[in-house]
């Protein structure tokens, strides 16, 4: 058991909170887990599956807690913090799991009382499922968990949180919030937007092709549909709160797309081949760095790609 953080409160009981609870329980890391969710149905499921106690208000949930995890959509982090703030125990650690960091810090920080430690965080692990039944204990194993500590952060509190996250299998790294938001716009947020768009295009086409785009969908498109099935509230909030970084990356994306479009129109095969060779090398870099668990072994065993 973690001596440092025995009582945990989870605010919002969806995919990430339930996965944390399962992982903490599976490893016997905490003494008790209290959960808060708005709906009675969610609270009942949480009590049955992974919480020791559930409460009808967020304020009630945090009273005794050593660690409070804000696991709600990014757009409501501020209001929920305002609600719990007067009830936080001195010395408690508040962290969040939001996919955007700058906006969360701006919304949450002003409400954090003196003597309480706020350590923003983001697990780079998830699925397209949501709600209290979607969590599982191994979600964070060997996945990055980025912390974006604020200036003057208490190193002892940071070390306690880091140790707990590492104990549930995460690889913890620290990063400045603005940088986090730009990096995530590239590797997660904009790709999600592209997936949403592509599935939207296919949906329009469905009427013309009489369902064939769905029936014959290849694995690339299936991946898009999986991503595009993610929670709409969560992703609406991500795009609205990481607006600047996403618009920056989207601008660069459309420039490249127009360039490729022109090369296709003009039949510029050499340029297209050179471009695809560069992107193939990036994929190989990810696999060699051990960051892609979906890559089959034969990919590496086969050695160099065909020239
Ligand atoms: N789903 C994913 O793959 C990942 C999500 N995240 C972040 O984790 C956070 C939670 O996401 P999930 O667990 O996936 O979502 P989820 O949809 O499974 O759960 C969110 C929970 O928050 C509750 N909630 C929503 N609005 C609320 C409000 N106004 N007051 C109180 N509770 C409210 C919902 O009822 C639900 O219980 C989000 O900030 C998201 O950006 C981070 C990494 C991965
Ligand atoms: O399911 C997927 O492909 C994901 O990309 C999961 C995910 C979604 C949002 C995050 O902030 C982090 C990870």
Please give a structural write-up.
The chain has 307 residues and is α/β, with parallel strands linked by helices. The chain has two domains: 168 residues, Rossmann fold; 89 residues, 6-phosphogluconate dehydrogenase C-terminal fold, CATH 1.10.3660.10. 52% of the residues lie in helices and 11% in strands. The protein contains 13 helices and nine strands. The strands form two sheets. The chain has a six-stranded parallel β-sheet with strand order 3-2-1-4-5-6, with helices on both faces. It has a three-stranded mixed β-sheet with strand order 7-8-9, with helices on one face. α2 links the parallel β2 and β3. α7 packs across α9. The radius of gyration is 22 Å and the shape is globular. The chain binds 1,4-dihydronicotinamide adenine dinucleotide and 3-(4-hydroxy-phenyl)pyruvic acid (ENO). 1,4-dihydronicotinamide adenine dinucleotide binds next to α1 and β7. It holds the Pfam family PDH_N. InterPro entries: 6-PGluconate_DH-like_C_sf (IPR008927), NAD(P)-bd_dom_sf (IPR036291), PDH_C (IPR046825), PDH_N (IPR046826), Preph/Arog_dehydrog (IPR050812), Prephen_DH (IPR003099). It comes from Pseudogemmobacter faecipullorum. This is Prephenate/arogenate dehydrogenase family protein. Keywords: Oxidoreductase.
């Amino acid at each position: 058991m973690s001596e440092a953080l025995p009582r945990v409160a989870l605010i919002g009981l969806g995919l990430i909170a339930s996965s944390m609870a399962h992982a903490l329980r599976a490893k016997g890391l905490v003494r008790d887990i209290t959960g808060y969710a708005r709906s009675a149905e969610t609270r009942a499921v949480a009590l049955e599956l992974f919480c020791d106690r559930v409460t009808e208000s967020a304020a009630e949930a945090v009273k005794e807690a050593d660690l409070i995890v804000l696991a709600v959509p990014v757009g409501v982090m501020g209001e929920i913090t305002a609600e719990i703030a007067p009830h936080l125990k001195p010395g408690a650690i508040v962290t969040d799991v939001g996919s955007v960091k700058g906006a969360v810090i701006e919304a949450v920080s002003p409400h954090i009382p003196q003597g309480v430690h706020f350590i923003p965080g983001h697990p780079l692990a998830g699925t397209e499922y949501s709600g209290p039944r979607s969590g599982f204990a191994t979600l964070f194993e060997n996945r990055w968990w980025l912390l974006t500590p604020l200036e003057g952060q208490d190193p002892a509190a940071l070390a306690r949180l880091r140790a707990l996250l590492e104990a549930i299998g995460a690889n913890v790294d620290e990063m400045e919030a603005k940088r986090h938001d730009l990096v995530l716009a590239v590797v997660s947020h904009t790709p999600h937007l592209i997936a949403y768009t592509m599935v939207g295009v296919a949906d329009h086409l469905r009427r013309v092709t009489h369902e064939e785009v769905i029936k014959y969908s290849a694995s690339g498109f299936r991946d898009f549909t999986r991503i595009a099935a993610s929670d709409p509230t969560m992703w609406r909030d991500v795009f609205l709160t990481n607006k600047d970084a996403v618009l920056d990356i989207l601008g660069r994306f459309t420039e490249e797309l127009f360039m490729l479009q022109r090369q296709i129109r003009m039949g510029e095969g050499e340029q297209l081949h050179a471009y695809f060779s560069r992107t193939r090398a990036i994929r190989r870099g990810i696999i060699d760095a051990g960051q892609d668990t979906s890559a089959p072994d034969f990919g590496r065993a086969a050695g160099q790609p065909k020239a």
